[in-house]
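Researcher: Next entry in the queue.
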Amino acid sequence: MKQNKAYKFRLLPNKTQSNLIDRTIGCARFIYNQMLSDKIKHYKDTKLSLKNTPAQYKNEFEFLKEVDSLALANAQMNLETAYTNFFRKVKQGKKDLGFPKFKSKKKCNWSYTTNNQKESIRIENNKIKLPKIGFVKLIQHRGIANDCIIKSVTVSKTKTNKYYISILVEYETQIINKSIEKVIGLDFSMKELYVDSNGYSSNYPRFFRLAQEKLAKEQRIFSHRKVGSKRYEKQKLKVAKIHERITNQRKDFLHKESHKLANTYDMVCVEDLNMRAMSQCLNFGKSVADNGWGMFRTFLKYKLENQGKQLFVVDKWFPSSKMCNVCGVINKQLTLADREWTCDCGTFHNRDHNSAINLRNVGIKTTGTVGLAQECLCH
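Model: Structure for this entry, 379 residues:
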């Protein structure tokens, strides 16, 4: 069975290489915008779809010949995918259509993707060869197996002027589905990230909140700088570094937590929450964004699946918080402000812990796991 996996490493290009990477990123963005503009204009004039390719623009814009042609081809593929998704949503009658948008130099992701053809991309002596750029120094903090085949790479640049490369590889593996013996339920917690069915909370450090005072100070200074000046650019970099540190701290914590759970349990049960609606309607924007619950679920899912294990997602309308995990009675009077409550059967509940146990129960009953249902109910 063929599987894909991505490795992300830090790149250390020299000045010439970094300039060429920047130009390639700019050309990929330019060809995307130019092709999109021509498609829109052609449709307005003829009511027909335009089939254009990057090769058609190289005579008019000769600077496109200086960069990797596959980077331009991938920009074209991204545009075609955006169009395909748009028309599929139109046919399905969806309201949020998402017509392809132009890519801004300031707001879009600074990256380009290129493909490996006849070993045009390869790693040698802690360096990676890239088309049109040559061998670039690589901080390879972990190895890639010899049987892995490099399919494509994505070179990206952060707002703090650091370069990274994501290497997509293909390899043969045999994933054996494991029998479900150890199951745990996780209930989303605004303060702790999650509370599990054993009563344990992850003690999430809330990195954004910790850095908020320092960030606010640097942003106040930034707001008084003259746009385009050297001091403006210097302060802009300071603010970007704080945001980058918060992001890296969050990702590191979420990777470690998901790794620990994936190695310990055979099935993890979570609730299917709409985090965007929660952040907008309930005014929990900063707390929800700081937790990174969606990212945590993504990490947990692929880590479990790589080991033949399962992430069980419970329907969002299931009353996990309001249902007593002992007698099954639903407390309809329970509000979001009630963090603890006592059931008519006399059982005292912590809201999050009770919810996690109910999620675990549902996962066990739905999957028909033998020998765990009674253990769960007696917990």
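Model: The chain has two domains: 2-172, 183-377.
Researcher: Noted, moving on.
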